[in-house]
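Record type: monomer structure entry
Structure origin: computed from sequence
Chain ID: A
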Amino acid sequence: MTKTNLITGFLGSGKTTSILHLLAHKDPAEKWAVLVNEFGEVGIDGALLADSGALLKEIPGGCMCCVNGLPMQVGLNTLLRQGNPDRLLIEPTGLGHPKQILDLLTAPVYEPWIDLRATLCILDPRMLLDEKSATNDNFRDQLAAADIIVANKSDRASAESESALQRWWQQSGNNRQLIHTVQGKIDGQLLDLPRLNRAELPASTAHSHSHAEKRGLAALSLPAQQRWRRSLNSGQGHQACGWIFDADTIFDTIGLLEWARLAPVGRVKGVMRITEGLVRINRQGDDLHIETQNVAPPDSRIELISSTDIDWNMLQSALLKLRLADNA
């Protein structure tokens, strides 16, 4: 049986960063796998996890939380039967509802395969101060389904957000654990804690996605000879726009970072090729985190998510102008 953990959390809470930390500090003798789902189509998390050493399956476009769950079952079966990992981490989209996933993982058909351990919810406590996030059904259900609440980004906490967290914990903590951390630095021993919280969760009524007619377990890719393309996705009160560029396209570093910082959206995530190598961009609200490496990524991918209507064509025009002339 494969020890399995569901790692949830709202947009920008730090799920992927937490998983990268766990993978970097796991027992090197163990084989781990990650089933990752994103709201958009371009596969940013897959790109971030590509060099982690874990077996990886991607489910793009928010499909994991849909009622039928067929893409998830295909990815799950592939990892369990072909990969035979010692541990499986499942990362749903930040807009995902946990009920359908937990129902599937505890279904009789998976009893011989899955040893479901603690579910972790990564939480940026400042979201408790944002009424739109705090009243979101998926946000609330992610917290309700968790055995362990990981209050991430403690270095960004304020007195107000800490008070909001303590109030929430007094009302909803029950027999669960609450831990504080920064940059997703989670003790791997938490993963082996048992699943304690079995509260019945309501079925979400907000499972509305627009999907392409054909869906596979792969992120967006480029046809031969095509230099770039974009993809749109919407549902649950949010919309996403993502772009992918070929390996020969290089971006102006300063201009790209300013574009990401100033884009009128709530969420920006990307792995982009620049003159210096690559830059990882991660922005939630006004928090912008960047990391550069002196290696070239196989392509460039960036995605923006917004809860309001956005002129994607305007943002796209500005992004295209940031390509260096010899590579545009």
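Annotation 1: The domain at 225-322 is CATH 3.30.1220.10 (Hypothetical Protein Yjia; Chain: A;domain 2).
Annotation 2: Confidence is low (pLDDT under 50) at residues 204-214.
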